[in-house]
Amino acid sequence: MILVTGGAGFIGANFVLDWFAQGGAGAVVLDKLTYAGNRHSLRPLEGRPGFHFVQGDIADHALVGRLLVEHRPHAVLHFAAESHVDRSIHGPGEFIRTNLVGTFELLEAVRAHWSALPAAERGAFRFLHVSTDEVFGSLGEHDPAFHEATPYAPNSPYAASKAGSDHLVRAYHHTYGLPTVTTNCSNNYGPYQFPEKLIPLMILNALDGKPLPVYGDGQNVRDWLYVGDHCDAIRTVLARGRLGETYNVGGKNEVRNLDVVQSICALLDELRPRAAGRYAGQIAFVADRPGHDRRYAIDPRKIEAELGWRPRETFTTGLRRTVQWYLDSTEWVQRVRDGRYREWIETNYAGRAQ
Asked: What are the tens digits of pLDDT across the range 151-190?
């Protein structure tokens, strides 16, 4: 049995689905169901033995403590986070409350529970914290990729709040002995991703005949990691990662944003052609966001050497799978594009000069 925070979000839901697909016996999902939490993503597990869903806040110390006592998980996997840079620019308060204060309250509840466990259970227990490469800041075009010892230099409220949560997890290991491991991943993409993020936004806007807004000159570089590969890495770190260590998880796929959008357009031209012309004609360059990091890149040699993990998907294969999933999943898309989503798109994009 595991306890998964944020298990109705993009990466969390993929992990829980994958956990059961790989033979996991049980999982308790704790999710607040904010705008990006979607219980519909977990619908294939409804009614399955060993699956439990609880709507609640990671900052609710009593609730977390009760779940730990009731289900006695051997591990807590902490995915819950506010996670969009643009949203953190418009409203940083929620990011501090969830990512920093929420992580603190969660750690306190887990520490109290873990301290009271019998010695054998205490020794087998794990707390795995899922974080991001954005805590390391921005790279120049020719700078070496981020490694585990790269100094933190967050440049957005989101990145700063995640950096703070990373430091708290580290401190709870070194101060209290809590058996923690941390992963810092590059940009994830794949099924069930909320359509404010670059890849699903471009897929859906293209299909709707709307502009495809590309920030700045479109030359910002990200290392793209297929979410299924990320889930595999997390299971690997949970099983064999050294306590107190961090592991960078990357896809070895550095791609410029404009190239990502053009690749999506090319796939849609192939998979959903239309008489009105090619999808690339909808690309529109818009004003950049404040403090937009130029490049991220992950050096995954530590997880490769120590744990033998490597990504299976290339960006070409993973993007094709992703585009096809969105083409096949119109019901899921309709459910998440509610009023809150439309309000957010209006807030973030309507006022951007082309």
From this structure: 999 999 999 999 999 999 999 999 999 999 999 999 999 9
Q: Give CA–CA dist 192/9, Å, rounded.
A: 8
Model pTM score: 0.93
Pair of tokens at residue 76: 């807590």
Rounded CA separation 115/108 (Å): 11
Confidence of residue 345 (pLDDT cuts 50, 70, 90): very low
Task: Give the whole-angstrom CA distance, residue 126 versus residue 146.
Answer: 25
Token pair 């689905």 in the structure block, residue: 17
Kindly list the catalytic residues. 133-134, 158
**Phi and psi for 188 in degrees, rounded to 5?**
-90, 150
Phi/psi-derived region of residue 143, left when phi > 0, alpha when psi is between -120 and 50, beta in every other case:
beta
Which amino acid belongs to residue 129?
H
Q: What are phi and psi of 21, to 5 degrees?
A: -60, -30
- In angstroms, rounded to a whole number, what is the distance separating the alpha carbons of residues 182 and 127? 8
| Burial environment of residue 130 by CB neighbours within 10 A (0 to 12, 13 to 18, 19 or more) | buried
- Using DSSP, state whether 221 is helix, strand or coil: strand
What is the band of 302 on the pLDDT scale with cuts at 50, 70, 90?
very high
CA dist 185 and 226 (Å) reads: 11
Half-sphere exposure of 111 (CA within 13 A, CB side): 16
State the pLDDT at residue 170: 98
Least Cα distance to 204 among 45, 196, 349, 230 occurs for: 196
CA–chain centroid gap for 107, Å, is 20
Q: H helices then E strands: how many in the chain?
A: 14, 12
How many CB atoms neighbour CB 215 within 10 A?
A: 18
Whether pLDDT at 229 is above 60: yes
Q: pLDDT-based confidence at 35, cuts 50/70/90?
A: confident
Instruction: Scan for tokens 């219980």, then name that residue.
Output: 39
Contact between 88 and 289 (Cβ < 8 Å):
no
Average pLDDT of the chain to the nearest whole number: 93
C-alpha torsion sign, points 148, 248, 245, 96 = positive
User: DSSP 3-state helix, strand, coil percentages of the chain (rounded to 5)?
Assistant: 50, 15, 35
pLDDT of residue 349: 47
